[in-house]
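Chain X:
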Amino acid sequence: MTKRLLEAGLLVGRIARECFPEGYLVSHELDASAARAETDRVMADPQVTDVFEAAFAHCGLLSRADVVRKVGPEVVDEPYRLQWRLICLSPSSSTRDCS
């Protein structure tokens, strides 16, 4: 069962990247610090509108987001004032807004 869930998750990720073709895939699957640093860097880039597998940490917990999508105004000097929408994907037939 676990192998099928993993395969389904990988398939959903590939489909998501087809739905949001301008998106950026954060790498560093095994290095949380590098993934968080890469997430910060790409979310500060005004050209990036969608980020896959963005990494966030809070209170010692790490989370990887399926998709975060820029929805706020473009403010290059203060990237964290931008608004981002968290999109959760699942192997089902729909997506849901997780924010």
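Chain Y:
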Amino acid sequence: MAKRWTKKEDQYIIDNYQSKTISVIAYKLNRTRNAVTVRAYHLKVRKSKRRDIQATSKNDYRRQLSKLRIQERIERRVCSKCSNKAVSKMYCQKCLDKMKKYNKQYYKRRRNSQQSGE
């Protein structure tokens, strides 16, 4: 039979869920990670930074959320296109090479169309 949650345990989760990992909380409370996660969900406690966004409109919220996602990817150094390890701020070497190749072809076609149009 499952152990019941005490008010003291609930308060511990509310106080520490943002700052500590789920594993640490589970160890301290002598519970499983899944049990702590489910209990935090029932207590409406979240880890996400996205809840902290203060937006006046839906578009403003989307813009701020997009910036936050980009910042998180830069911090983790993950490519925005393929999720490989990033070399530059946003992209891995493979994706950078593809973009360079595409840009060369694009500008070459554009130059040719401008010359033929004159």
